[in-house]
């Protein structure tokens, strides 16, 4: 064909990504399940770090624009209260015009920075793509070999300990509604098996089995 084989062109375009993704194979096989899982947060952190400076500047610009807008609202409120809304002189009109122009300029700059953030995010995601694909590939391999993946016991212990501590704090506050919420959260994070002492001391809610505190 005159224009060549489209499939061949597509493969040629993505082959470098595939090769790089495959290069992570042995490295990721040596990671624990929790280390592999932590890669997701690592990717998020890399994106956030790349755009942090510009996003901080965007927040500053938007806050400054909002402050200018509030100044105008406050001035208009004072004029309305004093019955002077029909008595604008030229200087007041010029001040209002300058304020609106400043707000527009600030928001325009913020919009330009948002475009930059989008572009930077896109570039970082493209950079991360092979590694992210390798993480998915390794995760799939582990599920094929072992359908049930468990976190390290040290991680589970830290989560359970944190949840127990929070539940004890709730017990001291004495809120039944918060107890119920604590119990439900405990069930999700796995310290139900530890029998949350705060819930056990308080006693089961109506209709629940008070013998073990959890169903």
Protein model, in words:
This protein has 215 residues and is mostly helical. It contains seven helices and no strands. The chain starts with 5 loop residues before the first helix and ends in a 13-residue tail after the last helix. The relative contact order is 0.09. Residues 189-215 have low confidence and may be disordered.
Give a short summary of the structure.
By secondary structure, the protein is mainly α. Helix content is about 80%, strand content about 0%.
Strand content: under 5%
Number of strands: 0
Mean pLDDT: 75
Question: What count of helical segments does DSSP give?
Answer: 7
Sheet having the most strands: none
**SSE-based structural type:** mainly alpha
Q: What's the Cα radius of gyration? A: 29 Å
Kindly state the percentage of residues in helix.
over 70%
Poorly predicted runs of 5 or more residues? 189-215
Outline: elongated
Following the backbone from N to C, one meets helices and strands in this order, namely: HHHHHHH
Distance between the termini: 68 Å
């Amino acid at each position: 064909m005159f224009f060549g084989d489209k499939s061949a062109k597509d493969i040629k375009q993505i082959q470098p990504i595939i090769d790089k993704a495959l290069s992570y194979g042995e490295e990721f096989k040596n990671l624990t399940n929790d280390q592999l899982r932590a890669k997701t947060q690592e990717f998020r952190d890399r994106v956030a770090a790349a755009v942090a400076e510009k996003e901080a500047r965007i927040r500053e610009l938007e806050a400054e624009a909002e402050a200018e807008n509030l100044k105008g609202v406050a001035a208009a409120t004072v004029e309305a209260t004093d019955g002077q809304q029909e008595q604008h002189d030229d200087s007041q009109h010029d001040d209002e015009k300058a304020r609106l122009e400043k707000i527009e300029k600030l928001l325009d700059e913020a919009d330009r920075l948002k475009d930059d953030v989008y572009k930077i995010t896109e570039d970082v995601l493209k950079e991360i793509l092979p590694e992210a694909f390798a993480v998915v590939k390794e995760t799939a391999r582990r599920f094929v070999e072992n359908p049930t993946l468990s976190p390290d016991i040290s991680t589970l212990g830290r989560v359970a300990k944190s949840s127990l501590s929070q539940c004890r704090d709730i017990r001291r506050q004495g809120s039944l509604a918060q107890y119920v919420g604590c119990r439900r959260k405990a069930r999700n994070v796995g310290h139900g098996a530890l029998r949350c002492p705060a819930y056990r001391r308080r006693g089961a809610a109506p209709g629940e089995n008070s013998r073990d505190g959890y169903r």
